[in-house]
Every structure is written in C-alpha cells, then in structure tokens.
Amino acid sequence: MCGIVGIVQQRETKIGKTIIEALTKLEYRGYDSVGIASISDGKVMITKDEGKISEVAEKIDIDSIQGKIAIGHTRWATHGPPTKENAHPHTDCNGEISVIHNGIIENFQELKEELLKQGHVLQSETDTEVIPHMIEQLVKKENQSLQEAIITTVRRLEGTFAICVVSSLEPDRIYCAKRDSPLVIGINSDRMFCASDIPAFLEHTRKVVLLHDDEFVTISSNGYEIIDFNSMKKIVRKPYTVSWKPEMAQKGGFPHFMLKEIHEQPNSLADYIRIDQPSLIKIAEKIHNAEKVFLLAAGTAHYSTLTGENLIRKYSKKPATSIISSEYEAISGLVDENTVILPVSQSGETMDTIMAIKHARELDATVLSVVNVIGSTITRYSDEVLYLYAGPEIGVAATKTYTAQTLSMWDIGLEVGKISGELDKSEYDSARELYRNIPTVIRQTIVRNESRANHISSWFAKKSSSFFLGRGLNLQTAKEGALKMKEIAYIHSEAYPAGESKHGPIALVEEDYPVVFVAPKDHTNKRMIGSIMEMKARGATAIVVIEEGDKDIEELGKWKFEIPKGYSETLSTIPFAIPLQQLSYYTAMRRGCAIDTPKNLSKTLTVL
Ligand code: F6R
User: How many angstroms is it from 346 CA to the middle of ligand 1?
Assistant: First the structure.
C-alpha cells in the first residue's frame, strides 16, 4: 500500500538509480505510479509518471537525477486514479516543499477547502497534496520553521500516514513523521535511509531503527534524531541488526519472487521449527486460561487461522473462533478482559487487523499475535508475539508465509492441547515428530509436482472459471488455492465445501469445467469420491490433489497432484497447498500475468 524511501548521502551521486533500486524492493506495496524528488543545486527536482517502476524507469533519464538527497514513492492508488498528476511526490505552490506519503488522510476534504480559501492551487485529486500546502502556509504566512510547520501539520492530520518531506528551504535533510503506517530507518557509514520496509535498503545495511507512532524524525548526514511530535520529547533509540541477508530480497535466479518463495518453503518452515520461541508456551497458557479465543486475520492469513481454530478446538476442547478482521464488529460485543485475540499477519501492518486489535485492547482483551515482520505495528500492540521467521516475502501473493502461518497454528494448537491435558503425551510426541518432518515432505512435494503444474496449466490457462473443493480442514486449502488462482492468474475461482457444492454451485458446471479436489487420505476421503462423481457426471474435469498411492481417487481425476506420505491428517493443509501455489503460478505464466505485481493489488493493505 504505497512504498516510500528516502536517502541522505555524504557525497553527490547518481542518486536516482539508488532510489529506483530501493523502490523496486518495495514494489509489492503498490505499482500504479512512481515518483522521485531530489535536491540538486539547492532546488527540488521532481520526476514522476504513471506505470510500474520498470516502465517509468525506461521513460525517464534516471542518470540525470543526481544529488545527495532524494525521496521516492511507488503508489497504490486510493484517492484519484493512477495518473502522472496523482503520482507522488506532491509539492506546495512554489515547488519548494515536496512530500511523499503512505496512508490515508481522512480529513483531507476539509483541509483542502481551507487551503483553497487561502489561495492555494492544488493540482491532483490526492489526499496527500494538502500536506505540502499546509506546510507552505505555516512557513510563509506564520513564519514557522520547516520543522515546526511539519509538526503542526501532522498534528492536524486524521487517518494514517508515513511521510517524508524534502525542501529547498533546508536542502541538507529529510524530515519524516508517522502514525499507523510503517517507517524504518537504515544506517550505514556513508548513507542514511528511511523506508516503508527493510528490503528497500537491505543490500546497503542491516542496521535498522524502527519508528513508532507519532514520531518525527530528522535524517541528515550527521545521523537521525527522533522526537515525539505530541510531547516534543526527544527519544533515544539505538539501531539493531536484522538477521535478514541481502540475497533474501533478490530473485536468486528464479524468474519471479513468487516461484523463489514457493521453493524457499522447506527452509522457511525448517527455520520456524528450529528457532525456539519462549513466547509459544506463554501464548498457549494464555489461550488455555482465556474464556474466549478469537483468531483475527485477512486474506490468506485468515485461511491459516482456520487451522488454528480447528486445532485449538480439537486438541484442547476450547471453543476458538476465526474471524475475518474487517468483520470484527460481529464479535466486538463479546470481547472483554477474559478474551484472547490472536491476530495472524505476514506484514503486521494490515489496517483491518490493527483496528480490530486496537478496539479489543480498549476492552482489556489479551492480544497474542503471529507475525512475520519483526517490530511491525501489530507486534507493538501485542502482549506476546510468535514470529514466523519466513524472511522477507516480496511476491504479492503470500506463499511461504501462508505455510509458516499454518504451521504456527499447528504449533499453538498442540501446546494448548498439552497444557489443557486433553492431548496425551504419546499423541503429543508423535504429532511433534510429524511436525519436524514437514520440511522434508514439502521439499518432496515441490519437486514431485513442479512439472505437473506446468503441464496442467496449459489447459487451465484457457479457462475462465473454476471450482476448488475441499472437506474438513482442507476446505481451508481449497480456499487458499482459489484465492491464488484469482489473484495471480485472474481466473474466477470459487472454493466450496465439497459436500455443499451440490446445493447450488454445481449448476455452473458444464463440459470440461475445471474442478480441483483437495483430497487427502483421511476420514473425508470416501465422501470426496461422491463429490467427484457428482461433478464428473455433469461434465466436470477433475484435477485431484491426493496422497501418493491413493488409487481410488487417482483414477477419477484427469490430472493428479501427489503428496508424499509422512504428513499427519491435521498437518495436511500445508503440503496440500503447495501444488495449488504451483498451479496458479504456471497458469499465470501462460496467461502472461504480472505474477509478482498482480493488477489492483498491494501486499500490505494499510487502509480500511
Ligand atoms: C494473498 C495475500 C493477502 C494477504 C492479506 C493479509 O496472497 O497475500 O490476502 O494475506 O492481505 O496480509 P497480512 O498477512 O500482511 O496481514
């Protein structure tokens, strides 16, 4: 949801190139337009255009963007279409103050009317453009310093923002402020960075300072200074070193981040298993002691919480309910001090989830989160955090973080089961053994199904609609498979409980209609045969995802994906998701889709 970056260097260089490289690492956040403001000869120079970073980079002369200081923006349009006029940076009337912004200014209409009355001329339809004009007004008409004017301005903003400001009035620094949108600082010996996310500067430095809400930062070649913009108190915060390596934010020989991230799963899951997190037991204890447990998440992360809800219920007999974050209102009346809220999020910045957490905290609920990005907003609102340790995920479609989320749900479910006494020791121990085997199963699953996915995709790519059917826990897998197919390959795909599909959806089935059946060899297996027969009788073409050697179902499918033995029934949601990731990837390839940056999407949705 918009990526922002700023650089302050000791020496003047072709800074446009460095900004474009950094923005490329943030492209997952938005890719509707791109813009840069650099300071050259004390003046603000703006270069911007609509389109993806690679398209804009071809149109503009990047090498001509020189200087010691620059800020850059990649946009996910909210207010106003993705045009050059609406591209950031936005400036004041004289082009002296330039601003980039991630977030939404909710009171921008009222602020805009005020500015228009004062004689300001605004060029775009964006909410952001009010910011440079408000700063200009305070500097020019009220004689405030640039710093004072920015602080006065951000105090008046309602909504969410991470902003960076450069100005010819003080050409040696970048001013930043944030509330509810992410902003981090990166430090190396001759350059300072600020950015929406760490991958933007990971190839330059691993020394990071996380900024908190309502903080204002001055970044110059001498370093950084943080103040609380409400109390004006100075904040001392030392950098820490992230363990992520620069190559984690590069494609490493794969054509797309998505394929790289699919292939990283054996390692990311092994990392999650290897890293002992004391928070796990604390989380399990708190869930055990709670009266009510609500798991909160959006999109793919929500599907992982369906495993959490199921396993907490199954292993500890405690009622747990999974809620889509934006539907939190449905349960908000039930939340109190005896409630545990368990948000699950890759980015830790999803606004629907954050808003629900904030409300639950006001009601004294305990917040226990599962997050990938260390130090992200959700972690700061949490009483305990379990990290996914999946490394940076750059492809917009969640893959490795989905399997890590699902594994973490399993981890939590097992521990709650143990503490509650409902899960006996031998059951627990054998479940843990299968759990440790999961990276191996995933490695074999990827290898076994890669060329199959590629082959089947040549047929699937010609389809305009499909069903993904599952039963029990693997309804979650079907939902995730359908979401991947929609978002990456733009093929309408609907997931349904297999048994429910006869109550309506089956009316859509016609000759050669694609239906993907997620059919592990568990207690749902026999009933799945019935569902496949029903669909085939109406002309559907069945693609079956089965355990190796499951002949009964294999012979019903035109095509099959095979999962090696070695997973348990409850763990099946992890390996069974893999071929569906691969199928959507190869189908999207054949349809010529922008796999890592699908249309209309952003990886981090910081709006409601
Ligand atoms: C789908 C996808 C999204 C996210 C959702 C939540 O592939 O990536 O559906 O899962 O936007 O994002 P996080 O996990 O960052 O809260």
Answer: 7
